[in-house]
Amino acid sequence: xxxxxxxxxxxxxxxxxxxxxxxxxxxxxxxxxxxxxxxxxxxxxxxxxxxxxxxxxxxxxxxxxxxxxxxxxxxxxxxxxxxxxxxxxxxxxxxxxxxxxxxxxxxxxxxxxxxxxxxxxxxxxxxxxxxxxxxxxxxxxxxxxxxxxxxxxxxxxxxxxxxxxxxxxxxxxxxxxxxxxxxxxxxxxxxxxxxxxxxxxxxxxxxxxxxxxxxxxxxxxxxxxxxxxxxxxxxxxxxxxxxxxxxxxxxxxxxxxxxxxxxxxxxxxxxxxxxxxxxxxxxxxxxxxxxxxxxxxxxxxxxxxxxxxxxxxxxxxxxxxxxx
Length: 324
Description:
The protein has helices at residues 29-32, 36-63, 66-98, 112-121, 128-134, 137-144, 158-175, 213-219, and strands at residues 3-4, 11-12, 196-199, 205-208, 233-235, 239-242, 251-262, 267-277, 287-297, 304-311, 318-320. By secondary structure, the protein is an alpha+beta fold. Helix 2 runs antiparallel to helix 3 (66-98). The chain starts with a strand and ends with a strand. It comes from [Ruminococcus] torques.
């Protein structure tokens, strides 16, 4: 196969190391290309240059002196094609070697500090034994004499709640001795002594607007006497007023027959026996009901609250032996 100088395009002898025309050093075969793919590109380029040179041979024969110039131009074109082929081969090889960049797989970073903080945020287990000892069962029994069975405070009907406020004020007027004195009978006393203001000359009783604050804390009830409709008591900005009446409030008493707690639900369970007598008609047989008062931890001033009152006695697994 004919060889040509890469510098001037002159034809070279088979084993020539230097161009006889321009003196350019002819590189060895293994210096030209480093792989089969690049060598193929060079061979294609040389083939194209040979075809171009062959096509100019006739011109050299026919046109004499102009043939030499044509031959030189053809050689230059061949060199250019070879150079372009080598460059293209290098670019192709370089791209092939680098066209698949490695992508590091992202993994979630474990944060032991964050996990520890989450564990610390868990609410501590409630000591139900200690909480049960803190419950004021004396006041709880007094409250229970007024409350019906209910599943949540907002489920108590307006009629029932109105009767609670009315009965509590009526009981206070009937069983409170003189102004400033303690109750004669306090089994249903839920209005503190200092909240009963006075009895007017016309027999109307007046009560402070804060008379039921303790009751609200205990029950979570938010509807106040002024939020309900009725005509047996009135109110203004400073007090509640109960109209005089000859009616007597029913005599209701409660006693604890068992208490304990449900550790899983974090509930204190107090089984209560409720007895209701009608003082207006002693011949009426007393009505006895069985109820369970459910007390739960709360962030109020007491630390606990009545959540609901269930009908019937609860089965208590963690029983507290002392009953008072």
